[in-house]
């Protein structure tokens, strides 16, 4: 590729913030709200025009489970977001905790209120353009681009909630990406909403999920009549009256750090949404005969990208052992859910990379050290880019645990900003105490499970 040398010029520099969060998905929203709640002057930078990431712009139609089959384990701000939205959806039972539908427009406002009422500022339609470092592990500024042109921001502490680890990676942090042998990434999914669905027929008809052997998706894929319907993945939920949200089908070889790759996937994803509508209208006419594609996600549903190497790497053994850590900042009970290669997903068995589900009441801890990038002094990472093995990413990548991690990162950033900015020096005991005071589920070691390495 040819190179082009930018001309040296001055751009505006804003130094008024103590904590800057980049990325306004679930982790970014709770990180910004948590930091601001602690009194830190906080800015949240988001590339799109709304907060919420996959649950809003990505149109993921349901929350992954909030419970360990006994109780809510994602508490604090995570529970607040969950319960606030649920209360606005009359067709959802108040006691529902697992696979609860999401109405994206309502969720956008829930996140707006969460962040702004905590006192954080939000900058929409603003993209990260550059990360400036001093070569000693400190980020000294970030450069962003929006309608105002290039602008620089400097703060004592930065939180990377981009989902791809952009801030940390561009600052020089070590990272891993994809399968170590093949480089394969988990496939993406372009979620969509079908409108004008017959609610009664949908709720009383055949379960569409692939786990139902009578689901029409099996006939559709086997027939070959719908070439744009790639496989049997077909999660769906009634998200509002006459509106069904779909997390359906896979798009392979999509790299969210490659704009051309994502652009091609979005074009194909929109065609796939139309194909699903036509397939369902033919095979389930009572439910979908008059349906139409009401919306497709403005964000691609990405399951895997960079994993930033931190002070601790969460392992499959940690997961299987239900391990606890002296510095854990949340618990997680979601199963290891790794979507497979095209060959695996199109086989009878599907992906073989899942691990036996936890029993009721079981969970594992996520240590603070998974949020602290090795070699960077004033950067935290929260969300799917935390330090973990690839298979564990299949569990910690989902929205409830990202909400919990974000709250911890924001609180830690505020503590670091009030000191010398070193995120590695944050007192984990004090962090955990404040999280507990704000309602986090952090059981004592004896009640949580095995004690992990607290190096």
Pick out its properties.
alpha/beta; five-stranded parallel beta sheet; globular; four-stranded mixed beta sheet; 455 residues; single chain; 29% helix
Task: Offer a quick outline of the entry.
The protein has 455 residues and is of the alpha/beta class. The protein has 14 helices and 19 strands. Strands 4-3-2-8-18 form a five-stranded parallel sheet. Strands 1-7-6-5 form a four-stranded mixed sheet.
Give an overview of the whole structure.
A 5-stranded parallel β-sheet has the order 4-3-2-8-18. The protein has helices spanning 26-37, 77-86, 104-118, 166-170, 199-204, 216-223, 259-283, 285-288, 316-320, 342-345, 390-396, 399-417, 428-437, 445-448, and strands at 13-14, 19-22, 42-45, 121-123, 127-133, 139-146, 149-153, 157-160, 175-177, 192-195, 234-240, 243-248, 292-296, 306-308, 323-324, 328-332, 364-367, 379-381, 450-451. With 455 residues, the protein is an alpha/beta fold. Residues 450-455 have low confidence and may be disordered. It is built from 14 helices and 19 strands. Helix 1 (26-37) links the parallel strand 2 (19-22) and strand 3 (42-45).
């Amino acid at each position: 590729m040819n190179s082009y040398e930018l001309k040296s010029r001055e751009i505006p520099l804003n130094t008024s913030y103590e904590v800057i969060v980049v990325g306004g998905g679930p982790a970014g929203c709770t990180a910004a709200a948590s930091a601001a709640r602690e009194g830190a002057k906080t800015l949240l930078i988001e590339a799109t025009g709304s907060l919420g990431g996959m649950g809003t712009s990505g149109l993921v139609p349901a929350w992954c489970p909030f419970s360990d089959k006994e109780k809510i384990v994602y508490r604090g701000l995570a529970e607040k977001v969950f319960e606030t939205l649920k209360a606005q959806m009359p067709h959802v039972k108040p006691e529902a905790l697992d696979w609860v539908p999401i109405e994206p427009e309502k969720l956008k406002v829930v996140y707006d209120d969460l962040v702004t009422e905590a006192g954080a500022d939000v900058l929409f339609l603003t993209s990260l353009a550059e990360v400036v470092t001093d070569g000693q592990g400190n980020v000294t500024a970030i450069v962003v681009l929006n309608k105002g042109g290039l602008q620089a921001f400097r703060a004592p502490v930065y939180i990377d909630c981009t989902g791809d680890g952009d801030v940390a990676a561009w600052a020089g942090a070590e990272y891993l990406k994809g399968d170590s042998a093949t480089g394969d990434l988990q496939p993406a999914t372009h979620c969509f909403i079908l409108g004008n669905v017959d609610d009664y027929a949908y709720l009383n008809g055949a379960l569409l999920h692939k786990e139902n052997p009578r689901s029409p998706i099996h006939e559709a894929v086997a027939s070959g009549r719908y070439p744009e319907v790639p496989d049997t993945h077909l999660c769906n939920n009634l998200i509002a009256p006459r509106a069904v949200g779909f997390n359906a089908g896979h798009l392979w070889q999509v790299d969210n750090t490659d704009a051309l790759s994502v652009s091609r996937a979005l074009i194909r994803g929109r065609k796939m949404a139309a194909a699903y509508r036509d397939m369902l209208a033919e095979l389930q006419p009572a439910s979908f005969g008059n349906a139409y594609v009401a919306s497709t996600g403005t964000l691609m549903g990405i399951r895997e990208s960079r994993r930033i190497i931190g002070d601790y790497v969460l392992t499959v053994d940690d997961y299987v052992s239900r391990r606890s850590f002296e510095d854990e900042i949340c618990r997680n009970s979601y199963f290891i859910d790794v979507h497979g290669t095209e060959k695996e997903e199109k086989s009878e068995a599907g992906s073989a990379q899942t691990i036996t589900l936890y029993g009721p009441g079981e969970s594992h801890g996520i240590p603070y050290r998974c949020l602290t990038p090795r070699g960077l002094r004033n950067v935290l990472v929260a969300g799917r880019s935390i330090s973990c093995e690839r298979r564990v990413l299949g569990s910690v990548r989902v929205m409830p645990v990202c909400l919990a991690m974000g709250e911890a990162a924001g609180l830690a950033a505020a503590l670091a900003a009030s000191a010398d900015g070193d995120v590695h020096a944050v007192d984990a005991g004090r962090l955990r105490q404040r999280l507990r005071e704000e309602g986090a589920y952090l059981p004592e070691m004896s009640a949580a499970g095995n004690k992990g390495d607290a190096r």
